[in-house]
Amino acid sequence: MNQKQNNQQQPKMPRFNMNWIYLIVIAALAIFYFTGEANGVQQPRSAQKEATYNEFKARVDSGYATRVVVNKDTKVIKMYVKPEYIRELFNRSSSEVGTEPYLLVEFNDSGSLENFLARMNDEGKLPEGYKYEHEEGTGFLGSMVSMLLPIFFFVAIWMFFIRRMGGGSGMGGGIFSVGKSRAKMYEKGGDLGITFKDVAGQAGAKQEIQEIVDFLKNPQKYTDLGGKIPKGALLVGPPGTGKTLLAKAVAGEAGVPFFSMSGSDFVEMFVGVGASRVRDLFAQAKAKSPCIIFIDEIDAVGRARSKNPAMGGNDERENTLNALLTEMDGFGTNSGIIILAATNRVDMLDSALLRAGRFDRQIYVDLPDLNERREVFMVHLKPLKLDPNVDVDFLARQTPGFSGADIANVCNEAALIAARHNSPTVAKQDFLDAVDRIIGGLEKKTKIMTEAEKRSIAIHEAGHATISWFTEFANPLVKVSIVPRGRALGAAWYLPEERVLQTKQAMLDEMCSLLGGRAAEELFIGTISTGAMNDLERTTKQAYGMVAFAGMSERLPNICYYNNTEYQFQRPYSETTAKIMDDEVLKMIGEQYERAKQILTEHAEGHAKLAQLLVEREVIFADDVEKIFGKRPWVSRSEELLEAQMRADAERMAEERERKLKEQAPSVDG
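Above: the chain sequence. Below: its structure as tokens.
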């Protein structure tokens, strides 16, 4: 109780606001302008003293003047005084009267003045001569302009800062529009030009999304049965799988107003702006209902709220999230408003945001499988000029694990490679080069390597190829290269099986294959190098995953220590368990390393031939490995499809050669 009273008695510190900085800058400029101070140094004004015309003539004749300025319009003379006569005329020092003190004289007869100045100038009593100025009196209008001009200047500066604070909303909005929603509204989603026909694959996700579109078009079909459309749908999946594209397709199909906004648009440095934008967004949506609100990357504003206030959670972000929760399903009603959102970090979202009544559905947009990749390729191949020999099924099999965005990138890279080679069409090899470019990086054929380094890389890569050839569940080999790509000095390409579940033996075979390069270095070179760093990193992560998460170790079976709590700084296991994990990982990796060395020892002769072939050709393929080791003991479905494709390509090439020979053969007339 005393602690609460002490907290209440403590003065509340004002929140920081950028308006303070803007006001300080403008006030400093105003002070500098009106006080005549610049850079902290006082600038004295030049003194003046009135004199008669006769006194003026006497002073000039005595050599007191440096120069004379005559204004015929105002009948005024300014005689600037030499420094040595300043104290005599002004009774002050030079520092007190300024840089150019002068006598101010009125005259009547311009003719006699001109004759006098001409004579004095001829006699050398005006070192800088004299000149005439034509200056009209400022009058009332000039005074008003001189007074209002600095005011207009500072108002312009103020409006500039206001526009910056308002996010460039213009003179009509300014600081009062900083809390307005920045959502882009499309009265007709069809203006985007995207429908479900443009979304290839993702049949399950499209089916669930189409129900929302169907409800907006024909709500009576559902309301007659007492059903209600979900208030919100959350699109979840890895990056590049088409979540935003699905939302655009919904906008194109539904034919209702569509509000699009990013989660980061709610976040602002000003206090209360995020919550204000949320309220304004839903106010606009209610006025346009039925409508759809789409929030992209919602994790920027919907991250789980901190349970420990001492951790310094962002109050502004949490206030914005609270406003969003209230608007989605609070005391008021938002009938006719459907909310779509997309994220690839659903595990970080607040549980209150994911409950039924807010986001009723979580639609998982997964990486495309083989058939879906074929459909995606069909969409992105339409604008390309393809060679007739390009097989879409073959391209789909060559890109396992690729997202829709990756496939679009493959098609674009293939077109660029074909253009670089001045080809009239995009051929099959261009697509294979594009896949290699995306997976491994750009070839660096100019990289200088010694013969010893080149042979070491060949032995390393041949070790991977040998182990993958003689382990049952290792991914089938496609090709091996020792040409440097990106940061890698060599690479091996595989065609992985698209399995839904991973068995323990399959994961161990993969670890053994990864360790094959390091084992080959130790066996056939006698020393090890840093070339296996990436292999060891992947092996270690996989081993810890098997032990800590998948429960695949002997001493810690059937236990999973995975915890996705955001603010969890304590491990969910003891130091003793951590030591057991380390021991199990070391044991697992050690067993697979010894297994890799055993396989390489058994096939040392074939490995040596493979390494020598790599040194000679730099790139070898699966059929080259088959010629050395014979047919692989275990043939997977992917390999069967690959072999069938290779046979089909060979038959097609043979038929093409026969057709060309027949066309070139001379015709014989009967």
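The chain has 26 helices and 16 strands.
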